[in-house]
Amino acid sequence: SIAIIGNNGNLDARDSRSWQGIQELEIDGGRHPLSHPQFTPDGRFLLAQTDEPALHVYDTKTWEAQDSLPQIPQGAVAYFPSKDGAYAVYTSDTGVTKLWDPRKRHNVAQLDGSGSIVDVSFAPDQSLVATVIYHNSDETKSEPVSRIRIWRTDNGKLLHELRPCEQPTPRARGLQWWPDGKYLLSSIWTGADGCENGIGMWDVKSGRHKAEFTGCGDPDGFAILPEGKGVAALCGSNDIAVWDVASAIGQIEQSPQLGKP
Questions:
Q1: Secondary structure (3-state) at 249
Q2: pTM of this prediction?
């Protein structure tokens, strides 16, 4: 299997068992940093974005660049497929973000008319999809905001917009579903009184902010540990913080008033 790591704007493909390098990918000598690497559901191709903006496609057998793929809509500059390939979220060259049905090749719904897509994550059962889309101050006519939202994949209807401590957040990145699909987590930076930077957790059914996992400053990436035992994050100090999220969820579910603002 293959692991992809960022390397100063390039992407470094490595063997995930031996960690030996396989291929380094770059655009114009690194002038256009590659980001948001995504494998197609069959693992046959690697997708990556650049700030041109453009979507780049690589064959994982030959590492040759491809013009596009049949399932990707024309003009897409970002593309995030679900694990089963039934749905995808993409951004067009006009800046519109849509939910896409690759098999029927049609748009299910428009999710956002502007902004920059930061992250996309499909629920374990693929029935929902979460997005983080950043809107700068020119777009909002006020403070910049990162909108965390959950949508239904069958019709593209908005289920919830999630807010840390029930307030807008200028920056959010990383989306992880708890293994049972009941909770969604994201790394957040708020600047709001009474709401610290860290990992926020929301109840998917109600859309309410239930917990924050703090003490790591502004986490630079996080992951759910195997079997949902906890969450690990890389802190700005290069330390790794680990939280017992499973116990926190147990307390919330035993006492529903916990986590209410």
A1: helix
A2: 0.90
